[in-house]
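Can you give me the bound-state structure? Components:
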Amino acid sequence: MSQEQARFLDEYARKRTHYEAIYERLLTSAYLPCGRFTREDVQEKLSSLRANRFVVAVCGQMKAGKSTLLNALVFGRPVLPSEATVTTAKITVLQHADREGFSVTFYEPEEWRELCERAERDEGEWGRAFRAEVDKAVRTGAHPETYMGRVLPVDGYEELMTYAATPDLGGVLSPYVKEIRVDHTNEQFKDVLIVDTPGTEDPNQVRERLTKDWIKQADAVVYVIYASQAFNEADIVFLNKYLRHVPPDGRVLAVNKIDLATDIEVVKRWVASLKTHDRPAVRNVAGETGSMAYVCSLGQLISELRKRGLPLGDWEQEQLEILECDGVDWTDPEKNGFPILRKKIEERLLARKGAAILRSHATFIESVGREAVQEMENDILRLQEDLRLTEMEVDDLKKQSEAIRSTIATLAATIGDRRKRLAREIKKNIGGGETEIHQKIYNIFEKVRNKILTSDSKKVIENHLWHLAKELLQLKDSIAKDLQTVAEEVEQNIRNFVDDIWNIAEQNGVTFSKDFFLLEIDYMTFHRELHETITNAASVHHIQQEVSDSLSILDKFLDWFGKPKNTIGKTYNSLTARQEIVKELIDRKIRSVINECDKAIEQLQKKVNIALSDHAKRCETLAERENQAAKRRDDLAAQLRWKESEKAALERWFSELRTGVTGAAGCERA
Ligand SMILES: Nc1nc2c(ncn2[C@@H]2O[C@H](COP(=O)(O)OP(=O)(O)O)[C@@H](O)[C@H]2O)c(=O)[nH]1
Ligand SMILES: [Mg+2]
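Here's the bound-state model for the whole set.
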């Protein structure tokens, strides 16, 4: 292999690995699908790159030495059998594997039917032979139906002969076999499928079709010619018929058995003369002389056997003696032309397909890359826009909830304040009145008690009692008035309290829920009720009653005046008790007013709290939304960062790839 070829092979292997890595990365990345490319497309490309093999089709007339040439080239020992007859010839596919082995493929049922029909009609040698061999096979009990369409592994060369040799030599199943697969371990042909086709002008139309298919997909075709009859009619016909469509850089013409040519120079002159031949068909073929290799396959095969230290069998020994007859050492590669043949095959394979494979993958990867980058750019734009909107949303939500929070705080503070003030005021008004009233009652009673104890004039006592009665009546009025004032003040305070809430709410743009409006209606009801409570208390009906009760006690006291001292003492005590009752009664009234007020205010506070808690809930929802939006924003930002870095990586990656593409094209030119 030339240095250049070796370099290219290295380059090919390197790029192939590189592209495989790219496909793998694409498949594990989030780029796919992108544009018109799906994961499956990429997967398919990767499989094709992995499975990609060069195909070399070897053709030529029967006995031209195709199998011998391949044995020398690929195995270095005789592995491919020499088929003896046209019926038993098989298409043999050589492929690289971890270890050597064989398998056979039988004809498909339809192919077999087609063959049988054809053989029925064929009156020539092939038809007769085919029918005879099938009869023989059937007679041994090997019925075709058992085998058609199957692929069987073969255990060793001996068994292979059952399928490959002529029925005479034990190849009972040979007529049923369409194709033989041979696994070899020659690293040099790791990526190459080599097909040994049976001769040209094959009467077996199924086999001929398969041969044609192989030639069609071949990257290089090696046409083997028997030197001593080079370019006979059959060669000209085949070359014109099948190889015209194979580009010249895909063909190698191997002129074999040069040891048998009387004079190789005569052959070469003959080949050269073909260029000016009268027949265009011959001239066409002559155009190929540039890709000719003159070889002695047998010589090379023996040399390979020796190189491997394998013993020569009787047949090889015999052949060697024949080869040595003319005094030329055909086992010498310099003489047997194999290095040139090898080089030509490699050149054709690598130049034609190697670069094409790399180019096709590079182009594919570039298109995927372009679309991926494009898609990523679109994604990035979309993400940027999303991010902008989300950021705005976060800001807006934050502002909204801040406004509500501050409103609630202000309201809560004001309401708390107000409530305290209101409670203080009520206490002050009523509480103040309470001590005053007590004091007054105490004074009045005290005065009377003193008079009673110190005076002995009935007139004077009577007089004092009258005073007492008058003062009590006055007191009654004054209590009534006091309580009336308290009621008004309380009402005013509550009115202020509610107004405050409304004002603060209005100033802060708080919209209260429907509940809050209902609340206002409640306030009205509450006002009325409170007013009534206070007025009822202030009407001091009961106080009046008590006072008049006291007066009647005093009346009785007057009646009893002049009675023994102990009666006076009793009356005196009962007056004192009466004083306590009046005091207690007034106390109760006042306490109940204060309680009522407190209760009412507490209720009011509760309702305001409910309204505010609605607000607080709204605020919580807003905060939750803000959190979510912020999370979305962070996600978007992270995604955006990731996309941007991925895009940069992709671009870097594809720019490296472009350099690779230029490399492949360069190799192709080389
Ligand atoms: N003298 C000579 N005989 C050869 C050479 N190559 C092949 N043969 C013989 O030619 C015959 C046919 O070879 P084979 O490889 O089976 O031809 P195929 O039908 O084209 O596959 C065999 O007997 C080979 O030993 C060669 O280079 N020199
Ligand atoms: Mg053969």
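A couple of observations. Residues 396-622 form a domain with the Four Helix Bundle (Hemerythrin (Met), subunit A) fold (CATH 1.20.120). Residues 560-567, 661-670 have pLDDT under 50 and may be disordered.
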